[in-house]
Design a protein that fits this description.
About 30% of the residues lie in helices and about 35% in strands. The protein has about 120 residues and is of the alpha+beta class. The chain has one domain: GTP cyclohydrolase I, C-terminal domain/NADPH-dependent 7-cyano-7-deazaguanine reductase, N-terminal domain (GTP Cyclohydrolase I, domain 2, 2-Layer Sandwich), CATH 3.30.1130.10. The protein is built from three helices and five strands, in the order ββααβαββ. Bound molecules: ligand LV4SOB2L. The site of ligand LV4SOB2L has 9 residues, from helix 3.
């Protein structure tokens, strides 16, 4: 299956298990692979027949702005469910990184795949 890609998307959200993390917003970085058949869009040169990466990126930013999860696991799982529901995505791979959360690591995070390819 073809993929629509979103790489290095930066969002801000309340995320973390510690008290000091509940009062600040922190940056998360996301990479997404979204399975879709791009041939109908390519054949008609028609945005309406594919996954609009701009609209999806906007939705992810709004999701992050209004969420307050403790774990990156929860953020990733809920975001994946929302995207699959809202945009009819059959399968996705989401990599979520929390930069600077661990000293001496560039980033920590999770990678999940949901749905059927
Ligand atoms: N598997 C996880 N481990 C940890 C998480 C998490 O979300 N998933 N979160 C924290 C803290 O919030 C940390 O990021 C603060 O620096 C610790 N471990």
């Amino acid at each position: 299956m073809d993929r629509v890609l979103i790489e290095g998307l930066s969002v801000e959200t309340v995320i973390g298990v510690y008290d000091w993390e509940r009062t600040i917003r922190q940056r998360l970085e996301l990479d997404l692979e979204l399975a879709t058949d791009i041939r109908p869009a390519a054949a008609g040169d028609d945005l309406a027949r594919t996954l609009d990466y701009a609209a999806i990126s906007q939705q992810i930013g709004e999701f992050a702005a209004s969420s307050r999860f403790e774990l990156v696991e929860t953020f990733a799982e809920r975001l994946a469910a929302m995207l699959r529901e809202e945009f009819g995505i059959a399968w996705l791979r989401l990599t979520l990184r929390k930069p600077g959360a661990v000293a001496n690591a560039r980033a920590v995070g999770v990678r999940i795949e949901r749905g059927e390819r």
